[in-house]
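Late entry, evening session. Most of the bench is empty. Finally got around to the prediction I had been postponing all week. Sequence below, unchanged from the version circulated by S.P.
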Amino acid sequence: MHVPDGFLDAPTSVATGVVAAGVVAISLRKARAELDDRTAPLAGLVAAFIFATQMLNFPVAGGTSGHLMGGAIAAVLVGPWTGLLATAVVFLVQCLLFADGGITALGTNVLLMGVVTVAVGWGVFRAVQTVLPKTTAMVPIAAGIGAFVSVPVASVAFVGLYAVGGTADIPLDNLTTAMVGVHLLIGVGEGIITFLAVGSVIAVRPDLVHGARRVLAARELEVRTTRAAA
């Protein structure tokens, strides 16, 4: 979904750049509440993991391929604000060093693959958590579902931006069908990778996973209550 230079007109690219920069600026302040001495190193590892896995494409259909976007996995592991910063750094490095996505479209790419996937992935994750059993085993499942949903939603957001400021001569209905169809399949891969990655961390250090904090806090409260009653 990396948008190249010139695919959206200048006003749209500028607008998405302003929005992305504003959200990143807010994240720089909000992330302080999510990080501590134990979890701060994990943020760097998450960014490195997303960068590395985005270099690996998996086949989808019709000769197309997809790769991890990473918004949901970053949000669940280190928190939505820190996760947004991690993804933004990845997209910046990819743009400047690997020409993956246009420089003038950097704000667009951060908005679509960072802000949208983080916000949707985290929102769906928290919603699913409310209906699943409150155990750490359910955290990777909720994360996988959030990751799956975030990808096609990001593709719909791209179609919306194209409808406003697209410069290519592509019928909107054809673009919508192609983007959503392909990204539904990519979302399956995103969900599986997210499930496996979050599950791996949960298995060894659940205390480092931001999305597991409420589950662990509830468990600790239950243990303390039981001891007090005894």
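Two things to note before I forget:
The beta strands are 58-59, 65-66.
Helices lie at 10-30, 40-54, 71-78, 80-98, 106-131, 138-165, 172-204, 213-229.
Will write this up properly tomorrow.
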